[in-house]
Amino acid sequence: MTAAPSTPLDPSDDPYTWLEDVSGDEALAWVRERNADMSARLDGELFGTIEKQVREVLDAEDKIPHVSQIGEHYYNFWRDARHVRGVWRRTTPSSYATDHPDWETVLDLDALAEAEGESWVWHGASMLRPTPEQLAAGEPWRRALVDLSPGGSDTDVTREFDLVDKRFVPAAEGGFVRPAAKGSLGWVDADTVYLSTDFGEGTTTTSGYPRIAKLWRRGTPLDAAVTVFEGEESDVAVSARRSRTPGFERDVVVRAPSFFTSETWLVTGVGTPDQELVRIEVPDSANVGLHREWLLVRLRADWEVAGGDGSSATYRAGSLLAAPLDAFLAGRRRMTVLFEPTATRSLAGTAWTRHHLVVNVLDDVTNQPHVLTPPDVPEGPDGAASVLGRPWARSELPVSGELLSVGVSTVDAVDSDDVWVTTAGFLTPPTLARGSAAPDAGPGGGPATPVPLKAAPERFEAGGLVARQRFTRSDDGTRVPYFVVGRSDVLDGDATAPTLLWGYGGFEIALQPAYSGTIGRAWLERGGVYAVANIRGGGEYGPAWHQAALREKRHKAYEDFAAVARDLVATGVTEPRRLGMEGRSNGGLLAGNMLTRYPDLFGAVIVGVPLLDMKRYSHLLAGASWVAEYGDPDTDDWEFLRGFSPYHLFAQDGEHPPVLFTTSTKDDRVHPGHARKLAALMLAHGKDVTYYENVEGGHGGAADNAQAAYMAATHWTFLWSRLAGN
Q: Which positions fall inside the Peptidase S9A N-terminal domain (predicted)?
């Protein structure tokens, strides 16, 4: 075994680089030894009980089968005890409305995995919409592109699937088949697809994603596909797609130079010698959306523009803007502001129906969806210009509830104004409803209240439990929200309890209330408290909240999390020896920093699929794609990166709480070497380290319900044994 290094770790003399060899014999022998140690430490009655409880939740047959409407059917992907890998199935809307829908199997992944000797994991499917003429003639939806991953990695394959005959169309019969790689296939028409993949040496970015988009015609070899767009090796990725809305067919290429910048190009004459590309001229940091006549622009930074008619305006970061696309392409820059942020309000998401736009707003991390209706664009050469800057009609989508998350998605943006509405809270099981975004659908003149279709039952005993939102102050005085769930007497400070604090704080992702039967059964029912910190770096208050913890300001996220931890103690909910924290992925980096920068605040730490070696991260798998978030360690940025690199912050003589590291050998997004190396370093200095690496699962950590239940039992048994004094 390599000798333990001195403190601090010298990044130029890393003794554990051998653990970066993902499937190397020596590295895997180390993994097996650590997994056996984990089993010896945690296996027992409590582990078995929790594993059984979690498996019951995951395999429950009364879960809500979330669906997509495709033609005359509702499609759903489902896992339970009988369908370990899962089954892709469909039913009719009328059957779905019953308590026991009549499901027709479309594709059985368990049977496929057995037949092909591959541990396939479902990555989704995209359907080819029939043309209006085909629909009018009663032709069914027939063609699909199915994505399957070996073991759950980001690397996957795409195969054409016949929805009528319920079989894959082999390449020998002219079917489209994309070999295993990070990439995608997307329909152009029945005989053409857009292809982005690894075409060989030099065709991927330094992040490992495609940098070339091609047009591939049925019946031709893959190497005959025609290049449509080629990005730079330093980009994150390149992709292409076709919008097939009748009357508004468009070919679009998106180039992402970094994680938070992109260029959107419209393509005419695609794949021909006369091909032309026209860029939609918005800031690189903005997100672009297209729907029928309309262009939407979502800003991450302030945008000062001239209107093209002598006017000028400055649009604020976090705003959502709209303009007729034709007028915008003609140089007219007068935009309608559909949403503008405030100190507490940010944009959570949007969903187009045929005629309306549903805008989902967060106000202090609470959803408030409403409906916007654009003005009609008159026909003729000046039609688009005539509605520039005009306001859109607004109405409220009637969905309410205390501390509920509300998700809104479109049923069919081409032909329908219906939406799916899902709601859930920490103590409120999910419901699925269907409603109309049409502003005159309800009895009072606004949208009608969505009609519930399915409701999940309670998975744990919630009697005596309450969920609350609280606020605290970070080191610099910033107001930081968090949620806390537990017994009312504990939250009132009349008792202390084992407490888990969860966080993420990155990539403009907001953490909202969610119902978890796993957390309820494994933790809350046992008397534990669960808390979620809405720290900077996330998206709870829009791009400004995210950018407040970027790069050299990363420490702000960690200060916020530490402030929430202290507040849980100050308000009498818990005490440091009974307070644990967990984070995964970017949250695993957060956990690593709590472990090394704030060890006195916690009695246990779980570090899941983490980034930890911030000197090497950009050279490992997809790490280069995150330089915009963290900084470039190969430049002077290392001076601040070193300040939040747990692998280099570890102090061998310091006191550290017990730690559980979890990762996956199949994770080809965040390299398992991060977790392996810090675990090895801490073990070499006699720290209390538990380590578990699942062979499958990819970045999600588990490929099926059995693996997910085992992982969950590992987490909750570790926490309870360390924080509850058992």
A: 13-265
